[in-house]
Amino acid sequence: MKKIYQIMMKLKIPVFIICFSGILFLSLVLHLLNKHHIITEGEEMNVHAAEGKMSDVLSEINTIRKDKGMLIINSVGRLGNQMGEYATLYALSKINRRQAYIIPEMFNYLSPLFRITMPTINGEEVKRISWREYKVYNWMAPEYRQFSEKYVRLTGTPCSWTIFHYLRDDILREFTFHDHIKKEANNYLQKIKGDRKSVTFISVHVRRGDYVHVMSHQWKGVIADRLYLEKAMSYFRNKYQDALFVVASNGMDWCKDNINASMGDVHFLDAGDELSPGKDLSILAHCNHTVMTLGTFGFWAAYLAGGETVYLGNFTLPDSILRKEFRDESAFLPEWIGFQADLSPLLSHH
After folding, report:
1. Among 222, 114, 92, 103, which residue's Cα sits nearest to residue 175?
2. Nearest-5° angle of CA 335, CA 236, CA 171?
3. Are 84 and 296 in contact (CB under 8 A)?
4. Cβ 287 vs Cβ 201: under 8 Å
5. Please, what is the angle between helix 2-10 and helix 15-36, to 10°?
6. Cβ within 8 Å of residue 127, ≥6 positions away
7. Partner residues linked to 71 by β-bridges
8. Which of 8, 109, 117, 325 has its CB surrounded by the most CB atoms within 10 Å?
9. Is 109 within 8 Å of 85 (Cβ atoms)?
10. Phi and psi of 215, rounded to 5°?
11. Three state DSSP letters for 49-106
12. Could you say which DSSP state residue 194 is in?
């Protein structure tokens, strides 16, 4: 600064211009200091104090998001129900353009099998929020398209293509099995293929268990019988010369007694563990086509597999209480093939 002053004096530059230039120089320096925010030791302490409040800032951001609206769903039932609930939540959150969260119970059920991406909400947080509940039935109702309340909790065990099928690619991505599960399923299918040059794998899911009693006593309905399975399997045998059937059931003894395996084209999945059904589902989902009977587990085996699906249609009497929550046309995709159930055992009791 001194040398600049001396030079300016030798050039006989007026003092007021020298002063003005000095002020401009100082202003420029101060502007640069502010722009780059050079931190002094005292300021550094203040920065560390501010960093301690970062969690508060993040919490505030989350609150802002919640103020736009949140959507959660109950975690009810076993694997098929959980998948139906997850897919429903995923789709309705997109339609309503609001953030969806799954509760820890659903995360614990689905994450060991699938690469799900929806975030989890803390159980304590769920308790603190005042929710407006909507029961979701097995079809897409107009009120599900636009929830007026900000905090909505969906209830029920919905599993309808009418709610989520328009997002099929997303749903299939959410229900992508982890690599080790895929590998295990493919290894099994390769093993039963043996020396055959080509095979068309047909999964057969036979839902029994509690349905054996509940369907006839409470729901005025029937479950798949021997005749239905013969028809469904014959359909695929006639269509594919290299058909190979993989049977999964929670009533495997009945299956072995009632499914004709004498042709050597039927394999029974002996896992049948209802406590860990993921293995069965992954094998069924990796087949080409599906024979399903009843229930959401069979639905998801067919939905994930793609291909052709044969299902048991019209399996209850018209006055069944199940019809209040279940409609064939919204439960089974239009291209799936329904074989009518034999209701005569029910009619003989009425």
Report:
1. 114
2. 40
3. yes
4. yes
5. 150
6. none
7. 100, 152
8. 109
9. no
10. -65, -45
11. HHHCCHHHHHHHHHHHHHHCCEEEECCCCCHHHHHHHHHHHHHHHHHHCCEECECHHH
12. T
In DSSP notation, 267-319 reads: EE-----TTSTHHHHHHHHTSSEEEE-SSHHHHHHHHHH-S-EEEEES-B-TT
How big is the chain, counted in residues? 350
Angstrom CA distances, 33 to 24, 27, 41, stand at 14, 10, 15
The region that residue 69 occupies, defined by phi over 0 for left and psi between -120 and 50 for alpha, beta otherwise, is left
- The tens digit of pLDDT for each residue in 7-63 reads 444 545 454 444 445 544 444 434 443 333 322 333 333 333 333 444 443 444 344
Q: What is the C-alpha separation between 22 and 2, in angstroms, rounded?
A: 11
pLDDT tens readout for residues 98-155: 999 999 999 999 999 999 999 999 999 999 999 999 999 999 999 999 998 999 999 9
Taking the C-alpha atoms of residue 109 and residue 86, their distance in angstroms, rounded to an integer, is 11
What pLDDT band is residue 273 in, cutting at 50, 70 and 90?
A: low
Q: Cα–Cα distance between 345 and 90 in angstroms, integer?
A: 40
Q: How confident is the model at residue 302 (pLDDT cuts 50, 70, 90)?
A: very high
Whether residue 325 contacts residue 306, with contact meaning beta carbons closer than 8 Å, is answered with no
Amino acid at 175: F
Q: What does the pLDDT average to over 299-318?
A: 96
Of 242, 222, 346, whose CA–CA distance to 289 is shortest?
A: 242
- For 297-314, letters b (16+ CB in 10 Å) and e give bbbbbbbbbeebbbbbee
Task: Evaluate if pTM is beyond 0.90.
Answer: no
Work out the number of other CB atoms within 10 angstroms of the CB of residue 79: 19
Please report where in the chains the tokens 């003894």 appear, as a residue. 253
